[in-house]
Amino acid sequence: MRFNFTRLMHGALPLAALLLSACGGSHSYTIGGTVTGLAVSTGPQSSVVLQNNGGDNLTITQNGTFTFPTALVNNSTTSAAYNVTVLIQPIGQTCTVTNGSGTATANVTNVLVNCSGTTANYAYVVNAGGTISQYAIGANGTLTEMASPVAAGTIPYSIAVAPSGLYAYVANYGSNNVLQYTVSSGVLTPNTTTAVAAGSNPASIAVDPSGSYVYVANAGGNSISEYSIGAGGTLTPIGTGTVSAGANPYSIAVSGSYVYVANYGSNNVSEYSIGAGGALTPIGTGTVSAGANPYSIAVSGSYVYVANYGSNNVSQYSIGTGGALTALVPATVAAGANPMSVAVDPSGTHAYVANYGSNNISQYSIGTGGALTAIVPATVLAGTNPESVTVDPSGQFVFVANYGSNNVSQYTISSGALTLNTVTPAVTAGTQPVFVLAAQ
Length: 440
Prior knowledge:
Layout: H1 5-22, E1 27-29, E2 31-36, E3 48-52, E4 55-60, E5 64-67, E6 72-74, E7 81-88, E8 94-98, E9 101-103, E10 108-116, E11 122-127, E12 131-137, E13 143-151, E14 156-161, E15 167-172, E16 177-184, E17 187-197, E18 202-207, E19 213-218, E20 223-229, E21 235-244, E22 249-255, E23 258-263, E24 268-274, E25 280-289, E26 294-300, E27 303-308, E28 313-319, E29 325-334, E30 339-344, E31 350-355, E32 360-366, E33 372-381, E34 386-391, E35 397-402, E36 407-414, E37 417-420, E38 426-428, E39 433-439
Parallel strand pairs: 2-10
Antiparallel strand pairs: 1-6, 2-5, 3-4, 3-7, 7-9, 8-10, 11-12, 11-39, 12-13, 14-15, 15-16, 16-17, 18-19, 19-20, 20-21, 22-23, 23-24, 24-25, 26-27, 27-28, 28-29, 30-31, 31-32, 32-33, 34-35, 35-36, 36-37, 36-38
C-alpha cells in the first residue's frame, strides 16, 4: 500500500492552523463602517468624534467609510471585542450608531453611523448703541430675529464666538472691557462673570482655533489683551495681560498658531506666534508694511488680506515659515472708497470688502497663489455706510452691517458673485451697527 504523503500533509495544514490558533495564535482585526447624513461645512463644529472601547478617538468630517486607527488583537488571552460610541456630536445634529458592538473574527466594516438634523447657523450684529442683535439664518439666507437684542457694554465694537459654539465674547470700545456670554441654540445669555477688563478702547476680538485663548486689539492702548478660556467660558488674563502692538490696532485675526493685527495709525500689520499658555511673541521684526490706515484684517489658509481705509485698496500677503508675512505680487488691489471690512468665504475662493464711503461691496476671486482679482460685476450696492461684512459658514450667503441705515443687507452667493436676497434685501438692526458675524 502506497501513502500519498503530499496529500496527507495538505490535509493536515488546516487542522494544524486550527490547533495553533487554539494554542495561542494571534490575529489582528480592524473596526470600521460608514457615516451618513453628516452636514458638511467648515470648522470643528461640523465633525463627529467616535470612540472604540472608550478610546482610539476618530474625528470624521465627511460622509463615507471610516476605519479606527488601532486594530484589535484576538488570541487565547484577549478577545477582539469592540464597542463604537459617539464622543462628540456635531453642532445642530445627533449621530446614532448601529451594529456598533460585538467580537471581531474578521475585519469589521458594517458599523453604521447616521447623523440627522440640520446644522443651525446664526448671525450676530454689534450695534454701537449698546446692544447685540441676534438672528437665525434661514435656508434661503434670510435673517429672522430669534430673540430680543441682548445688552452689551458702552459702544460695543466686535463679537467673537468660540469654535465649540458654546461661548461668545464682545469687545466694548467705550467701557474698556469684554463681556462674556453663553450660547444656547444661538441665543446669547450673559455669563455669571459678565465682564473682564481690557485695554483702552478695545475694538476687535478673536478666538484661537483650539478654543483655548481670546485676543483683543485695544485701539486706544496700542496693545493686545490676551486671555485663556476656563470652565464655563470664563476669561482669565494670561501673564501680564497685554503685549504691545502698533498705533491704533483696529482689527485682529488668528490663523492656526499665529496672530495678525492691523494697525490703523502706523500703517502696518503686527505679527505674533502663540506660545505655551497662549502668550503672544512677535515674529521676526514684529511688523510688515500695509497701506494707509489699515482697518480690517482677514486670514484664509496661507493668505492674509487687509482693507486699507485711507488708500482705498486691499493689501495681500502669504504666510511663510514661522508665520512671517510676505507681500504678494501685486501687493495691493483696488477697492471702493474707505474700505472698512474684508471677509473670505469658507472655501477660500472668494473675498468681499465693505466700502464705507462708496456704499457698496467689492467682490473678488482668489487665485491659486492667493492674489485677488475683481469679478464681474466688481461691486454690488449695499446700504448707507457699510462697515462690516461676513460670510455664513455654509458659504452660501453674505451679510453686511450698514452703519448709516441701521440695517443688514443680505446676499446670496452664485459662482462668487453677490445677489441681493430676493425675499428681503435688508433686515432692521439696532442703532449704528458696526460689526456682523455669521457663526454656527
